[in-house]
Amino acid sequence: MPETPALSVRNLRVEFPTRRGTLVAVDDVSFDIAPGEVLGIVGESGAGKSLTGTAIIGLLEPPGRVAGGEIVLNGQRIDNLPREAMRHIRGKRIGMVFQDPLTSLNPLYRVGEQIIETIRAHLPMSEREARARAIELLIEVGIQGAERRIDGYPHEFSGGMRQRVVLALALCAEPDLIIADEPTTALDVSIQAQIIQLLKRLCQERGTAVMLITHDMGVIAETANRVAVMYAGRIAEIGPVREVIKSAHHPYTRGLMGSIPSIEGTNDRLTQIPGSMPRLTAIPKGCAFNPRCPHAFDRCRRERPDLMPVDHSLAACWLVAPQSAEARS
Amino acid sequence: MTDSPFVEVKGLSRVFDVSKPWLNRVLEQEERKLLRAVTDVSFAIGKRETVALVGESGSGKSTVAKMVVGLLPPTGGSVTIDGVDMWSIADAEKRQALRRRIQMIFQDPYASLNPRWRVGSIIADPIRTFGLAKDRAEIEHEVGELLRLVGLDPADASKYPHEFSGGQRQRICIARALSSKPEFLVADEPTSALDVSVQAQILNLMRELQDRLGLTYLFISHNLAVVRHMAARIGVMYLGRVVEIAPTQELFSAPRHPYARMLLDAVPDLAMTGRPRKMVEGEIPNPISPPPGCAFNPRCPAVMDRCRREVPELEAAPKASATQATACHAVAEGRI
Ligand SMILES: Nc1ncnc2c1ncn2[C@@H]1O[C@H](COP(=O)(O)OP(=O)(O)OP(=O)(O)O)[C@@H](O)[C@H]1O
Ligand SMILES: Nc1ncnc2c1ncn2[C@@H]1O[C@H](COP(=O)(O)OP(=O)(O)O)[C@@H](O)[C@H]1O
Ligand code: SF4
Ligand code: SF4
Ligand SMILES: [Mg+2]
Ligand SMILES: [Mg+2]
Questions:
Q1: CB atoms within 10 A of CB B2
Q2: What CATH number should be reported for the domain whose range is A1-81+215-290+309-329?
């Protein structure tokens, strides 16, 4: 028996009803994350990364809604839970880290109060025990002078330090899953590397699963075990990080990788994907990538490819379908 | 003809007074607060060359850019472009003529286009300002050509900025910057707000335009891989100073300044080569009260006593190429 995934998402669909019809922002998205595993979710702006995360934690803003699929946390279905139960899951079993640390920290409370309150809401500890635990955590995330700084307010911390505090807060109730949405995007390069290493180490030690949302392939390469590439609301490709980065199967992923300047690379021309990702109101028929794809053929314009197995990955592209050679000729 | 480079920046400095108003200062018994955003920055750019400045936020890159194009007066030093001192009163008239030849592209393609103007009027604005066309028809023709040059359609001239994506808007900004037929473009984080695939389109476009039009670039970014792709020479900034300047190849193969090394190590290993990396501790200090001596000393693994007293000068490192310079005592003494 394989172990139960920490998170299992099946055929997730997120819709926005509008006057001009229903927009499908996340379409038929499925993936698992094992305990202690980091799954990276990459894709360009508007691909549906954040909405996937928001749907999992049950915080979609109406009129946005989960219109289909299942979300299962450690064997328990959570997408149909009442609001109160979901609120408890969010603090206790799913920890969250966002781009702006101030989304997670209340500026009016001392950071210690916030961590202690979260610990006590979810774990049976006295105030004293919780405070000791909070200090331990702050030391663990690298806050110097934690005994003193625990009584500081968020504004007294630098951006990088705040994100460390947010990590402590996300981990303090010992969750099964951390959802981190662009956790380092607002930080400087040297600080980014520190935070990413920290996130990875802490979750590995605890066996916490991580869903790491970012548009930065470099961050994924450093941190993730597997990666899902999203395009126009769907997963274009999902697989082991090395395979996706070094030998991608989907033409979009290949284009994306080629478009990133690297410090190892030569000064040659960057690969250019023509055009840009379609708006939700104008997703092309068939494969959503077909107008930009250098390999598009007839079938791509008619039929939408689902994820198909190839090597150790899954790719949604007719090129990897068993009968594709014949389709192309 | 002179032998001086096309663009020459010498000892450029900018201090901002960030004190509270006088009365508050007196009541709260606070001292004047001065922020040294840029200190003693020097570099030169040859014609058709690209020089880049790279550094983390707050290191002074944008402040340098604004002083170079003439948007912000320096508090010290000089900027000379094609022999004209951008900031001396004596050169005021010549400077007016120079304005047309220098343009700037900004980071945020959303904020830098007037939402109420049609794209055609936005691009035509510099043409009108500098009186570069004789009539409407010629302006329209020029705008159409510029749109084509940046990969858009001449028909886009009648649209408004909100009808375009971020990458398309940055193309519009480039078209506007090119419309006065400049020779020198200063681009301040021109792709930082864009997705990587769109960034690739813009970077490729900027290189193509440079080849075709013989442009000179000062290219500013916090992204080392991007500056490596664009520039022939790179200056690394830290807390308002250039701490190392070197030909691109040399900077990446043999970085000398401890901060430059750290910055390179912080770049994620996208090629997954497993290259060894050293994580550096600490954060950038407050620019209002930087550490004495070398501003990098609290984070530096090679720090010694002297570093806390003396500011290191930018000078050629032992065994470095002629155009390389580092501001570090340890490098100068050959210790690292
Ligand atoms: N309230 C809303 N109403 C309509 N469409 C929405 C709404 N919120 C998000 N969308 C659309 O859903 C799509 C996915 O959005 P999402 O925020 O998940 O993107 P993302 O991949 O996280 O992008 P980014 O990298 O910019 O954060 C986008 O096209 C977005 O415009
Ligand atoms: N108009 C201003 N008034 C006061 N301080 C400023 C001003 N402009 C920039 N600064 C300060 O100068 C320093 C350098 O800023 P900037 O040149 O924008 O850095 P970068 O572009 O490298 O991020 C920063 O500490 C910034 O806060
Ligand atoms: S399905 Fe067709 S259009 Fe889509 S990525 Fe594959 S080859 Fe290209
Ligand atoms: S001068 Fe001293 S502190 Fe500064 S970078 Fe060099 S060795 Fe480090
Ligand atoms: Mg997002
Ligand atoms: Mg800037």
A1: 6
A2: 3.40.50.300
